[in-house]
Amino acid sequence: MTGSSGDRYGRAVVAVGGSWRTATLRAAFFLCLWLVLAGANPADIPAAAAAIAAATWTSLHLLEPSRSRRSIPAIVRLALLFLYQSVVAGVDVARRALDPRLPLRPGFVFYPTGLSRGVRRNVFTTLTSLLPGTVPTGEENGQLVYHCLDVEQPVVAELAAEEAALVRALYND
Amino acid sequence: MNVARDIITVAGVSAGVFFFFAGTVGLLRFPDTLTRLHALSKADNLGLGFVVLGLLPQTGGLRDGLKLISIWMFVLLAGATVSQLIARTARQSGSGK
Amino acid sequence: MTEFLTAAVGLILAMLGLGLVSILRGPTDADRMMAAQLIGTAGIAVLLLLGTVTGVPAAVDVALILALLATFASIAFVKKGLSRLETDGADPGEDR
């Protein structure tokens, strides 16, 4: 979890960089996080140093520096899209829950993704789990299986748009 | 100035309470495990987001505000991750039908 | 403002309680595990509000810890569920 948020904020500026540069940027991100969460107290320096070292090591271990090109405007757009979609998703669920007729047509939708297995696909499912009316429920035969509140929504088209935004932001190689 | 801040707080926290309400209504009314998961993960995340937004003007300083936002972002990412893991388990154990 | 925030705390706690009752009824383990998710969002909202109402900044730290614990609890549950499915010979759905 810390690894992926470190990836999003600490490493956004790395296009093609050495692992030292990545490590420094991630450590700087964790230092900022420590300062926000625990405050700047001289007595905390040993604990902070240990925590930052452990966090940086763990994030490098779990999430290797990526070689693909990142575009900051596209990342900002992706973040805004994510926030906007999560608001729409909440409103959508609230509308369905409070409607006396309970308008639900739940079912599964299969989505063939172009993203490779592993980190990229997991980032995509995490992003799309907050899309309106969909929750990813794993995969079958290489396709992602989404559970939908309403199978008549244009779910596949929305997912494809989200995937395109993600590729533009992080995986443009 | 104070009035404007209080208005933001009242609006944000009220919206937050509304979405928690909607999430709970969804939990009570939706028919099966996976649809209830939708209600929980989406409405409640938004509820917390609005509560945080409403509390921001009441914080003492920049650090406190950033701390609230970091907690919210952590809960958002954790919720997005965990809800799909729970959904996967629910589908594979065959209870999602 | 204090009265308003206290009322909001009461309402969210009521929602949390109702949600817990409905989730813990089941019928499956996945339903019950969603209780951790519910506490992980509604509980945190309550703690953040209480921290502001009572002027106790430590409540925010408690909220952070609660968020971490709720996440780890859910991941532990999913791990356990998946390993049980694996022993049944079903597709464990690897890749995480």
From TrEMBL, chain C:
It is a multi-pass membrane protein. GO terms for molecular function: sodium:proton antiporter activity. The chain crosses the membrane at residues 6-24, 36-56, 62-78. It comes from the Bacteria. The keyword Protein biosynthesis does not apply. Keywords: Cell membrane, Membrane, Transmembrane, Transmembrane helix, Transport. This is Multiple resistance and pH regulation protein F. It comes from Bradyrhizobium japonicum.
